[in-house]
Amino acid sequence: MAKKAQESQYVSDTFVRTLWDQFEEAVSRTREVREQQRTAFLNAMKETLKFNEVTRNTLKTIFEETNKTNKELVSEIANSNTGLANNTEVTERFRPVLDQWNGVASRFNELATTPVKASFDILEGIEKQLEKSTESYISYAKQTQESWDSVADEYIKVSRNYHEDFAHRLEDSYRTLTTSAK
After folding, report:
1. Tens digits of residue pLDDT in 130-182
2. pLDDT 10s digits, 75-124
3. How far is it, in rounded angstroms, from Cα 56 to Cα 111?
4. Are 180 and 22 in contact (CB under 8 A)?
């Protein structure tokens, strides 16, 4: 009870407590903002990757439709036989040439699509690795920050106590000085 009465008689207590309470609130807000920034960054990264995937799928679809159209054109040209369909002998003579033409066209199509497909596969792999790396970095940064936060919290606690003790000693010195002057 005597200690409580002594603590309440210090004029500086309200100032010191208010100062340190505001500082701790500012630190707490900073930590919350930091966590929100990490979450926002990760969400933005994931949204960007989703957008890239949708764009890539759209390009794949366009490319596949183009290939399908090209195959249909080659097939139509091969089947039309340039108006010689009535002559069975001519048609049979040109059948191997037309088959070769279809084979060349399909191989050319494969050659043309291979780099595009490979590029899309590489991009997908890079994006997946980027997402994993980002998540692991954020996790590591969060763990590191939490360990430093505990050190900072302890430092704040000790600093607050030292500040209060200093203010109390200063007031006690002032009281002793004013008491002896009377």
Report:
1. 999 999 999 999 999 999 999 999 999 999 999 999 999 999 998 888 887 66
2. 777 666 555 555 566 567 777 777 787 788 788 888 888 888 899 899 99
3. 20
4. no
Q: Which long-range contacts (CB under 8 A, 24 or more apart) does 150-159 make?
A: 152/27, 156/20, 156/23, 156/24, 156/27, 159/20
| Rounded Cα distance, 167 and 20, in Å | 13
- Residue type, position 117, single letter: K
Q: Which residue has the tokens 């291979």?
A: 114
Distance CA 76, CA 8 (A): 99
Cα–Cα distance measured from residue 157 to residue 28, given in angstroms and rounded to the nearest whole number = 14
DSSP tag of 1: -
* Contact assessment for residue 109 and residue 67, using Cβ atoms and an 8 Å cutoff: yes
Half-sphere exposure of 73 (CA within 13 A, CB side): 8
Is the pTM value of this prediction over 0.90? no
The C-alpha atoms of residue 84 and residue 131 are separated, in whole angstroms, by 59
Provide the token pair at 74.
């080659």
3-class DSSP state of 10: coil
Residue 84 has phi, psi (to 5 degrees) of: -100, 20
Residue with tokens 């059948």: 95
